[in-house]
């Protein structure tokens, strides 16, 4: 009789144990599914964050390009306005970063006159118009009916040769640690209808020959030019730094 009663009880206990095991298995499987979903969600979020970061980087790059383009445009606009304001006094200066026809002719004639000089380097070198435009804009505030400026910004192939030719110019000044060469445009009066004087003011920074042609309708000598150019040089250097 006791044996008969124990059998159903054991069967019930076994059934409960199997049920518990099944529930535990289900819970374990559910936990595994949840963990897998969490990993997938985390990976998805990380992927989206990476995409967002990439978009932010692209947007930042676009903004930087836009800012650079605007700055270049502003410099050109400033130069155009400056050229317009000085047009009534110096209508032969183009305002595009290039030298005027008269100055170009003089430099080419000087370069062909025999012996290698700073003019040969100017003829051989290519003008970088954007930087020259900035120089023209920077010097615009100093333009008046008596004084005009033509910007120079060219890349040179031989820096040692350039330094030598600057040193060969009639007057050399050291200003702000730079060797500045000055040279009168002696034949200027024969190339213009108005009596005026002009001076090359040049220096080298890295692989660029930088400076300007200082044109004046005043009676001005080399010493006076040397005294007047330091603040002009500061304006130029700030414009292209």
Q: What's the average pLDDT?
A: 78
Number of strands: 6
Helix coverage percent: 55-70%
Q: Quick one: overall form?
A: elongated
Radius of gyration based on Cα positions:
39 Å
The percentage of residues in β strands lies in: 15-25%
List its traits.
single chain, 241 residues, alpha+beta, Protein Transport Mog1p, Chain A, 2 domains, six-stranded antiparallel beta sheet, 6 helices, 6 strands, 59% helix, disordered N terminus
Question: What this model shows, in words?
Answer:
The protein is an alpha+beta fold and 241 residues long. The chain folds into two domains: 1-86; 92-239, 3-Layer(aba) Sandwich (Protein Transport Mog1p, Chain A). 59% of the residues lie in helices and 17% in strands. It has six helices and six strands; from the N terminus they run H-H-H-E-H-E-H-E-E-E-E-H. Strands 1-2-6-5-4-3 form a six-stranded antiparallel beta sheet. Strand 3 and strand 4 form a beta hairpin. Helix 1 crosses helix 4, helix 2 (101-111) crosses helix 3 and helix 4 crosses helix 6. The longest helix is centred in the N-terminal third of the chain and has 85 residues, at 2-86. The chain starts with a helix and ends with a helix. Residues 1-5 have low confidence and may be disordered.
Please describe the topology of this protein.
Elements lengths: L1 H85 L14 H11 L6 H7 L1 E2 L1 H11 L7 E9 L3 H9 L3 E5 L2 E7 L12 E9 L2 E9 L5 H18 L2
Helix pairs in contact: 1-4, 2-3, 4-6
């Amino acid at each position: 009789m006791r044996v008969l009663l124990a059998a159903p009880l054991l069967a019930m206990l076994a059934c409960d144990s199997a049920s518990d095991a099944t529930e535990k298995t289900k819970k374990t499987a559910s936990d595994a599914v949840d963990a897998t979903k969490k990993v997938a969600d985390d990976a998805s979020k990380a992927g989206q964050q990476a995409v967002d970061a990439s978009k932010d980087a692209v947007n930042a790059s676009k903004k930087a390009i836009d800012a650079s383009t605007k700055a270049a445009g502003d410099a050109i606009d400033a130069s155009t306005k400056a050229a317009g304001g000085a047009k009534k006094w110096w209508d032969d200066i183009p305002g595009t970063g290039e030298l005027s026809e008269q100055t170009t002719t003089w430099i080419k004639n000087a370069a062909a006159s025999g012996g290698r000089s700073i003019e040969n380097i100017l003829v051989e070198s290519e003008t970088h118009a954007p930087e020259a435009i900035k120089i023209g804009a920077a010097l615009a505030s100093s333009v008046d009916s008596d004084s005009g400026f033509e910007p120079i910004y060219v890349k040179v192939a031989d820096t040692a040769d350039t330094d030598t030719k600057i040193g060969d110019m009639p007057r050399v000044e050291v200003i702000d640690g730079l060797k500045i060469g000055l040279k009168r445009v002696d034949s200027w009066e024969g190339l213009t209808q108005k009596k005026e004087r002009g001076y090359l003011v040049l220096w080298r920074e890295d692989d660029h020959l930088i400076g300007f042609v200082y044109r004046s309708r005043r009676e001005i000598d080399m010493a006076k030019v040397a005294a007047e150019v330091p603040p002009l040089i500061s304006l130029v250097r700030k414009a292209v730094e």
